[in-house]
């Protein structure tokens, strides 16, 4: 069985479906602080909190777990700057508890949800795994330090670990079984879809004077189903590689889209005019963030099946209507 922490959340629930389709049985462990009971597709569901060591150890003792996919984290950049302690506690202590429990029961394969935020402001585009890592948020720091913990556990205890550095996860399960339902929502596509659905009056665009073609920030949107597939491939690689394997891979679309381009595609898909308000730039927002995923393609055999922005928005829109109207 595969333990999926945070498996009732957005990317976690998609990955549980992908693992099922690949023939794995899953135990979902989620506090439901941000996740949803109805988005659990695990064979077993345990409501629990990684900050409590005994809870997570008892899950390993109760089920024949062979590997772990670790999504559970606090992940709001702004909140991490306002309330850093909670981020250190949940992301660092929570992960340390997970790794300790794994070591205690001798489970040593883990795929970890890292983030583009480990890089901070890029010096060159596209961003490769070797790029400078100079985080600009506490959230990004916690992801970076967890990667360092994984280095140590692989080096000293023979773990096998893959960190997947996601860029902007977007879109939803093409079969509409699960999708994005964050409270608060901070991601661009669901926020714009909220306007189309009448849940929000307009969309704020933070800055239109960046050095990009239309002046708005350019980001890399990767379909969540393609992300989910990368976790299945990573687990397989860890089972194949044996002890002490350690790698980090970027996962992105490789193609950047500006905020204005995303809004335009939402207009096209929904038929809604989507009023916008141009505001000032947000501190710490780089002009362009685009990934190179060449290493994941080469070493994991990963490729995208849903890279087209229109398809990403169409799948997100189908889910948004189903969930929120
Ligand atoms: P999410 O909030 O939908 O999912 C996280 C899940 O973890 C939630 O269901 C939450 O209840 C659970 N959780 C949090 N703390 C927990 C704890 N202490 N114990 C047990 N469960 C806990 O978030 P998501 O968008 O699916 O992101 C998943 C992971 O991917 C996170 O680690 C996030 O930092 C990372 N990530 C996400 C994106 C993105 O674009 N969404 C980009 C880069 C990295």
From TrEMBL:
Q: Record's SUPFAM superfamilies?
A: NAD(P)-binding Rossmann-fold domains (SSF51735)
The GO biological-process annotations, alphabetized, read as:
galactose catabolic process via UDP-galactose, Leloir pathway
**Residues of the NAD-dependent epimerase/dehydratase domain:** 2-241
Give any GO molecular function from the UniProt entry.
UDP-glucose 4-epimerase activity
The EC number(s) attached to this protein equal 5.1.3.2
Can you tell me which residues the record assigns to a coiled coil? none
Chemical reaction(s) catalysed: UDP-alpha-D-glucose = UDP-alpha-D-galactose
Q: Does the keyword NAD apply?
A: yes
State the pathway, as annotated in the record: Carbohydrate metabolism; galactose metabolism
Is Transmembrane helix among the key words of this record? no
Cofactor(s) of this protein: NAD(+)
Output the InterPro entries linked to this UniProt entry. Epimerase_deHydtase (IPR001509), NAD(P)-bd_dom_sf (IPR036291), UDP_G4E (IPR005886)
Catalytic EC class: isomerase
Pfam families associated with the record: Epimerase
Against Gene3D superfamilies, the record matches this protein to:
NAD(P)-binding Rossmann-like Domain, UDP-galactose 4-epimerase, domain 1
Which UniProt keywords are present, listed alphabetically?
Carbohydrate metabolism, Isomerase, NAD
Q: Which protein family is it in?
A: Belongs to the NAD(P)-dependent epimerase/dehydratase family.
Q: How does it assemble?
A: Homodimer.
Q: What is this protein called?
A: UDP-glucose 4-epimerase
Phylogenetic placement of the source organism:
Bacteria, Thermotogati, Synergistota, Synergistia, Synergistales
